[in-house]
Amino acid sequence: MAKLIDGKAIAQEIKDELMQEIASMKERGIEGALAVIQVGSDPASTVYVSNKKKACEALGLRSESCEFPEDVTEEALLKKIHEYNHNPRIDGILVQLPLPSHIDEKKVIDAIEPTKDVDGFHPLNVGALLIGEKGLISCTPAGVIELFKRSGIEIAGKHCVVIGRSNIVGKPMAVLMLRENATVTIAHSKTKNLEQICRNADILIAAVGKPKMIKASYIKEGAVVIDVGIHRLEGKKLCGDVDFDEVEPLVSAITPVPGGVGPMTIAMLMNNVVLAMKEHYGL
């Protein structure tokens, strides 16, 4: 019987710890704040932004939101980021992605002050991650590492296959697993013999973006499987990149969807806000 890695419970554990840290800082007169910028009214983005604001409120952090219409100019958006960069009452800045096609996403990410970049997307933070220096780390990969550590799953010496090479999940995930002394293979849509490569994995991290793509034929018996994907099927049922029903009987541990990696992303976002506060106030 596979161990179910309960991301919801672990995320709550992290939030409880953060709540204590935030309360302790408030006693010293330090109040943290996250600025969230949304462009347009995409329903999924609106839900994500709302969840982030609720998470701040629950932990005792202030959140400030700025909603721009879909046709906002790039110049106006960059001006707002510049204001938040120079606002001493704002510790973290988050621009909800994706952005409309007329706005250069890279330019927007690059404009955020790295010490306030709580998404961990700025090139300076990505570079710091790569060479093992201090910086804010992309939330989903950081959350996966916490899932391993708080579930007592050994990483060092294991062969890890990461399927996916995005800047947000795949690449930082591979670097973090290397940091934890795993041997890492990065696979992607152009990888030949993908099933065979995955069957060699002690740890398989699926961040491929295709519903139920990972079947039993991809799995080595006793492997640990982390499913980063989330998709809404017909009938509104959620699933991940892994065919859970097929794979679960073969593995030693697995994350469910929902309730696995998803809750960790917001928990680690809040963790990044607290890290940014500590950097800001020299704690």
Structural class: alpha/beta
Number of domains: 2
The appropriate CATH architecture of the largest domain is 3-Layer(aba) Sandwich
Biggest sheet features: 6 strands, parallel
Measured as a percent range, the helix fraction is 40-55%
User: What's the CATH topology label of the largest domain?
Assistant: Rossmann fold
Summarize this entry quickly:
The chain is an alpha/beta fold and 283 residues long.
SSE topology sketch:
Elements: E1 3-4, H1 7-27, E2 33-39, H2 43-59, E3 62-68, H3 74-85, E4 92-95, H4 105-111, H5 123-131, H6 139-150, E5 159-163, H7 170-179, E6 183-187, H8 194-199, E7 203-206, E8 224-227, E9 231-232, E10 238-239, H9 244-247, E11 253-254, H10 262-281
Parallel strand pairs: 1-11, 2-3, 2-4, 5-6, 5-7, 7-8, 8-11
Antiparallel strand pairs: 9-10
Helix pairs in contact: 1-10, 2-10, 6-7, 6-10
Question: Would you write up a description of this structure?
Answer:
This protein is of the alpha/beta class. It has two domains: 29-113, Rossmann fold (3-Layer(aba) Sandwich), CATH 3.40.50.10860; 139-262, NAD(P)-binding Rossmann-like Domain (Rossmann fold). It is built from ten helices and eleven strands. The chain has helices spanning 7-27, 43-59, 74-85, 105-111, 123-131, 139-150, 170-179, 194-199, 244-247, 262-281; strands at residues 3-4, 33-39, 62-68, 92-95, 159-163, 183-187, 203-206, 224-227, 231-232, 238-239, 253-254. α2 links the parallel β2 and β3. It is globular, with a radius of gyration of 19 Å.
